[in-house]
Amino acid sequence: MTWSVYGSYLVIVVLIVLAPGPDTMVMLKNALSGGFRGGLLASLGIFTGNAVQGSAAALGLGVLIARSQPVFVALKWTGAAYLVFLGVQALRGAFRGDYPAVEEAQRRRGGGFRRFREGFLSNITNPKVLVLYLSVLPQFLDPVRTTTWDALALAYTVAVLGVLWLLVLLVFVRRVRAWLERRRVRRALDGVTGTALLGFGAALALES
Prior knowledge:
This protein has helices at residues 3-18, 22-58, 61-67, 69-96, 99-108, 111-124, 127-136, 148-175, 177-180, 183-206. It is mainly α.
């Protein structure tokens, strides 16, 4: 693994990370309803899921999962259903608009772990993340020279850069929180977020 190869890999990873996807929408959903702490916990859950999937790909387990049609299909439908579930939650919040009552109920149910779990499950049940690792990593690995540690380093680069980008977005959300807390703005953002999550879930389900 040379620095020039790693630099080329970084360029590709940065472009992938900057593209908005389910992880971004899940983080924003939790940042809107739970503030900085909610967004942070969701981001940590996403990072953990990313690291697990990256480890599986680097250690060769990802190939077995991807080649096992029943497991891969089950994972795909589970991920699609969970994204749709989160999307419906966001749309319900936009429709009701009773945010103080909802957030109080979430605090009573132990919202911290729930937010981490949402981030983790939305990522770990998304097989497109695993496919991404399996399609990109081999392009930068030499079967003869590179080691498992090289593969893990490349995989964890995706997870680290991904969570750093989410934290940048989270800081921005925190800075404009006063504006975001306006009921009309909040409902509009929940509507957009919910619709996006439904779209990602449907795309995942329909993808062959």
